[in-house]
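Sample entry (140 residues):
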Amino acid sequence: MQCSKPSGNFPENRKAYLREVGLPILVTIRPRHKISTKELQLFVKTENLTNINISKFQILFFALDLQKQILIPEDKKTPELICSIEKKIQPNVILKCHVGPYVYTNLWSSIQIQSISFTTEDQIRHVISEEDLDDVTVWL
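Predicted structure, serialized as tokens:
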């Protein structure tokens, strides 16, 4: 009998794990940082790992400074950064979302996901629990 070692394909391993434990999405986030202008952009890819359509998808983020204080973008009144996809996300399809660019008065040092929620085609709203946020999110 031959044993094969797990392949080094991290995203595929992650997807298999998420499907096994019943988590329905994989979110990949690539922050882009312009330090000179204190600018933040987030490129977000969302993949539907279920067998049903997702009709609405939303991630709520906050940018934090070194002291873990929530920052508010210069041209906004509130701190939340939102990636919202209103289109149907079919099973095994990836949709992209672009957040920003936002400019801050202070340099941001980290991004915190506040929540990930989505509605399936049967109109059931799902919220990914805080403990599962790290499992469904890959930071590049």
